[in-house]
Amino acid sequence: MTTTTARPAEPGPAPAGAQRAVVVVPTYNEADSLPRLLRDLAEVRGELPSGVVLDVLVVDDGSPDGTADLVRLHPAYGGWLGLLARGGKAGLGDAYRAGFSWALDAGYDLVLQMDADGSHPVTALPAMLAGLTENDLVIGSRYVRGGRTENWPLRRRLLSAGANHYARSMLWLRTRDATAGFRGWRADAIHAAGVLHGDADGYGFQVENTWRAERSHLRVAEQPITFVERVAGASKMSPGVAGEAVALIARWRAAEIAAWLRRHLLVVGLVVLAGLLRVPFLHRPLTSDEAGFLTVAAQWHHGTSLYGDYWVDRPPLLILLFRMAALAGGEVPLRLLGTVATMVAVALAGLLGGLVTSRRIGPVLTAATALLLLDAPLFGGQIVNGELLAVPFVFAGLCCIVPASRPDTALRWWAAAGAAGMAAGLVKQSLLDVFAVAAALLVWELLRRSRRDAASQGAAFVGGALVVLAAVLGIAWLYGTQPAGIWDAVVTFRMQAADVISSQASPHTAHRARVLAVAWVWTGAPLLLLVSLLRRTPRAPSPHMPLGWLAATLLGWEAFGVAAGGSYWLHYLIGTVPGTVFVLARAIAVGIPVRRCSAALAVMALSLAITTNAVLHRAPRQPAGVRQVSTWLTAHDRPGQTGIVAYGQSEILRTAGLRSPYTELWSLPVRVRDPRLQELTEVLAGPKPPTWIITGERGLASWGINPSLAQPVLAARYKQVERIGTWRILRLRQDPQLARSRTESASPAS
């Protein structure tokens, strides 16, 4: 290809501090439209910001209609107008790159690009040049407030909107008008974005440079313009050009994903390992909590209690998640749901590490920490419960709060953090970690920055939280669960339960507290925290985020949550995982030696290996006789029969396929809501009593429960038919359903 270059004549010595700008205009058969554009450019040269000198470079690809000759004959040719004549059509992107390269070699400070067809308003040039004083790239945008299109047919509008949506969605772009061709660049930004080394030759050039600019963290602004249909000539857009752009965008995205995977291969491996470690537990018998939540979720409808015919002190999003598992088949889908939650949490822990620290090892160490704790049997990690399903939402909220703490960050990060935090609380009401961290950060914002900014950020956070709350409450309402009932279950009841536990707790509670403390120590989590809090090497902390203050708030809230739970079950420790990961990320950010973290993680890995091996080589842990009782009932019950277990052990009823006419499936709600067993007595003495009653050695008696009302009814209406270990199985002396069935079968045929 033969290239002839005609450089504009030197404009003379520029005023001190003046900036030289050039408009690059690619042409091919634009002889009809170019004269008008050059006339408008000549007029606007007198309206530029002070200290800016503007030239024009036409890049012509051998137009057969004489476009290049028209430029050579223009009076300004050789003055402020120049021509880069090329021997043949090589594409829009190639023409722009040639013009940009020429402009950079000529020493221009600012480089603008626009079409020759009159669709870009020349009158917007002064504003775009002014915008380049504070930005690296200014885009003349049709899709920001004040921008619009004019005289476009519907087909063109749909094509443009669809192309922008495709480009922005595929490449995750913030820019509203990613395909715009009217732009202004600072010269150093062209180098920084690698514009001269692009791939696209057609209209994908515009999308590619938007993508490159954003990935290079350039300051990109959009200037609203009115885009009109071309005044003369024919459009160069064709299906082939559009297809090239679509394919290139897909290729760029695939390359980004591949590069991300290569960069984060270790984190991806840890995510996969987190899932594989749970595979051996997929077919283990359900625990009491798992069986109870599945039972509640499977029958959730407009019923007589909070969730259908049963009551439980859990928020509705947890029941919705369990309902998904119940509808998908029950046990194995539930364990798969827990596996997905663990893998997502590990991935988000890695992301959090990358957001908090710039050290490349950060995401690997934080993801490894999450894996070692979430899969730890001593944390109850193999059980699918509220803590496990809520932790991914906590990590998601923390991942939103970190970028939200940076100056001039869009409020959408605060809204997303509020949404994730509310979702976590609607799965497990005590996991309000995101709210605690957001409150701590807003207090810091109030003290260090603008009250107005803190107020708007807080409003965005609350707004995001309210959207999720309204959505979940709306779904629960459709199932017959009222907001007042949910408040009573997750707030009022928990306060009452705390009083009952503290005043009437059995010796088992103190024992569980000691076991929980030993389990926490054995996993190595305290060692990792100690290593993370040791004297650090000097490194500048983040000026935008009080990492230490946020870490202390998060750990403090999680410690309070474990203590306030009162019952000290092992799975309470799952709630401490986000805080442990955040403390580690903070330690990495301020320069802790990697070898310290690695040593602590090695100890944790050894603990995980030992405990997992021990769990896998022993029978699933269940209270003595539970499996035998379930097997006996399965062999002896009949369709339509019901049962009650005093108290808890819902897996017995679920395995036997029995429904319970009593609304309480757990022991703590019985102790708080029905301690004198008045409701149970009404069920036993009513017209539809349960067929089977399963009790322990002491019958209906237990700590915090007075059986004096129910015990006489039990003795009168039930008889013991089997004893398995400490379990007693009682059957209704006269099953009304069985009696009715016998009566009907004995009556003469009509």
From TrEMBL:
Protein name per the record: Glycosyltransferase 2-like domain-containing protein
Family: Belongs to the glycosyltransferase 2 family.
Keywords: Glycosyltransferase, Membrane, Transferase, Transmembrane, Transmembrane helix
Taxonomy, superkingdom: Bacteria
Transmembrane feature ranges: 260-279, 332-355, 361-381, 388-406, 459-479, 515-534, 546-564, 570-592, 599-616
InterPro entries for this protein: DPM1-like (IPR039528), Glyco_trans_2-like (IPR001173), Nucleotide-diphossugar_trans (IPR029044)
Residue span, Glycosyltransferase 2-like domain: 23-190
CDD domains documented for this protein: DPM1_like
Pfam families: Glycos_transf_2
UniProt source species: Nocardioides phosphati
The keyword Transmembrane appears for this protein: yes
